[in-house]
Every structure is written in structure tokens, then in C-alpha cells.
Amino acid sequence: MSKQELDPKVILQLLENVWNKYPHQRLGQLLENFVFIKGERGDKNSQKMFYQSDEKTIKQLKNEVK
């Protein structure tokens, strides 16, 4: 991905788009359901969110906004 695509504003805009699609969800729900392993924490303690690359986060959000 280019530096422009990795700009934090890109992630924030995508997150806003997903939140507009699902306005009834709280931030934690959005992150758990659409960013970090589709609500299934593989390690059962959310540590994976600290190691997930921005590229993967952007990909997850873009897939949901489609």
C-alpha cells in the first residue's frame, strides 16, 4: 500500500463509513465485529488487535463498506 493509503485519515474515514452503515453499534462493537477477526478473537483476549497491521485494518474496513 502507498503512504497515502496508510494515512490515519483513511482508516478514520473508512471507520466512519462503516459506523454510518451500522449506527446502532458502539465503537467497541464496530472494532470487534468489523476490524478484528470479525468478532472471533482467536486468542480470546484481544491481543491480536495490538499486532494487526494497518494494511489489514484498511482491507477489513474496505470489505465491509462495499
Explain how this protein is built.
It is a single chain. Helix content is 58%, strand content 0%. By secondary structure, it is an all-alpha fold. The protein has one domain. The longest helix is centred in the N-terminal third of the chain and has 14 residues, at 8-21. The radius of gyration is 12 Å and the shape is globular. The two termini are 19 Å apart. The mean pLDDT is 79.
Cα-atom Rg, whole angstroms? 12 Å
Q: Characterize the largest beta sheet: strand count, sense, and whether it forms a barrel.
A: none
Count of β-strands: 0
| Approximate strand percentage | under 5%
Report low-confidence residues grouped into runs of 5 or more. none
* First-residue to last-residue Cα separation: 19 Å
What's the rounded overall pLDDT mean? 79
Give the oligomeric state of the chains in this entry, treating copies of one chain as homo and distinct chains as hetero. Answer: single chain
Helix content: 55-70%
User: How large is the count of helical segments?
Assistant: 4
Taken from the alpha-carbon principal axes, the silhouette is globular
